[in-house]
Amino acid sequence: MVALLLLAGCSAPPAPTSAALGCVPAPAATTQFRYARNVAITPGPGYRVLTVRQPYPGAAPQSLVLLSCDAPDPALPPALAGASVLRSPVAGVFSGSTTQLPFVTELGALDRLTGVADPALVSDPAVRARIDAGGVTTFAAGGITNAEQVIAAAPGVLLSQGTDDPAFPALRAAGIPVVGWADYLESGPLAQAEWIKVMGALTGRDAEAAAAFDAIARRYTDLAARARGQVPTPIVAGQPYQGTWNVPAGGSTAGALFRDAGASWSAASTSAAGTLPRSLEAVLAADGGARTWLADGPWRTTADVASADPRLPRIAAAGPGGQVWTRDKLLGPGGGNQIYERGVAHPDEVLADLVAILHPQLLPGHGFVYYRRVPTG
User: Fold this and answer.
1) How confident is the model at residue 18 (pLDDT cuts 50, 70, 90)?
2) Residue 324 sits in a domain of what CATH number?
């Protein structure tokens, strides 16, 4: 088990200090996670322990000790002996994944963001404005972490992109904690969105994180309850890529969204996470009669469907009376898709789009955020 202690505000310049950020005493109570299973925050004597059960596939659990910025150094148990110490609110966050950015902005903690892996991948306008103003360091352009650059910047914490990295041991040896951020290993959209509470613990905004998530979960569950009373709408899910059609399984995050929106498809009853590889012909046989197609895109018109594969127009959704939808309506200036950034923190918005597609009578006049209907062409 890798153990770390959070002592935000003790990092070297150029990161802001805890005095500049303001000391926010950390709550003593356990943070309740209603949906997330890969993370926990539990109380200790004078500190809290943040545990990521699987920082990346196959990894051992990682524990961090969250210590309030105004608290004395605690006596740690042997399991945490030698742990790095970080105080909350942490001063200087280096973000390895764009899925972390909407949590930062949602909590009003943009002033804590001092580094992003690759600005070219960032879509959020507020984050891009901070990058353009020169307030953010690039530390992993092209996916390769520049350890020397990170050590020189001395951030309070680096949040991983959910994988291991050969640079991490050097960063930890230099006193820079690395948190294994593995929201994507959760099962279900609300479980992923609940990682906002981890960002809240790091930035001293626990109460704000809990309130934000409660609002997201309430909107999501209310929409799902309304869709549950409707007759499920048959769909075609996904599209072929390099000869394989990866159909969302029933136990995947995409599958949960489709099911909660009131959709039916051939893999809906499967419990597996992720996707199920199938041939195009198998999908045609199982789902080809559906008149609603939730694809990935990018297709400008339905004519692009045929150009992708001449067999695809055999899907009823691509013909007269059918609907083809892609989830590429909200793109960043660099082409990044916001459904993989903001959408992770706001599954309620994604679900609303899906409900409006599958059961439009439930959300008349809905303004689509992520999904776009492909016009006939």
Assistant:
1) very low
2) 3.40.50
In this structure, is residue 82 part of a structural domain? yes
The number of distinct structural domains making up the chain is: 2
Q: Do 33 and 178 reside in the same domain of the chain?
A: yes
pLDDT at residue 334, as a whole number: 81
Strands (E) across 252-366 are located at 263-264, 275-278, 292-295, 323-326
Amino acid at 100: Q
Mean pLDDT (whole number) for 74-100: 87
Parallel/antiparallel/unpaired status of strands 244-248 and 240-241: antiparallel
Q: Is the pLDDT of residue 262 over 60?
A: yes
Q: Which of 242, 239, 243 is nearest to 254 (CA)?
A: 239
Question: Residue 222 domain-assigned?
Answer: no
| Domain housing 260 | 229-373
Cα distance between residue 325 and residue 315, in whole Å: 13
pTM of the predicted structure, to 2 decimals: 0.91
| Residue in 144, 1, 126 with CA at minimum distance from that of residue 63 | 1
Q: According to the 3-state scheme, what is the secondary structure of 190-242?
A: HHHHCCHHHHHHHHCCHHHHHHHHHHHHHHHHHHHHHHHCCCCEECEECCEEC
pLDDT score recorded for residue 13: 35
Cis upstream peptide for 89 (omega within 30°):
yes
**Angle, nearest 10°, between helix axes 206-228 and 196-203?**
170
Last residue within a domain, chosen from 181, 216, 251:
216
The mean per-residue pLDDT over the stretch 8-22 comes to 42
Give 200's contacts (C-beta < 8 A, 6+ positions apart).
Answer: 107, 206, 207, 208, 209, 210
Report residue 17's pLDDT band, with 50, 70 and 90 as the boundaries.
Answer: very low
Residues 267 and 182 in one domain: no
240-241 and 178-179 strand pairing: unpaired
Please tell me the distance from the alpha carbon of residue 342 to that of residue 193, in angstroms, as a whole number.
10
Which value, in Å, is the radius of gyration of the alpha carbons in the chain?
Answer: 22
Contact at 8 Å (CB) between 92 and 155? yes
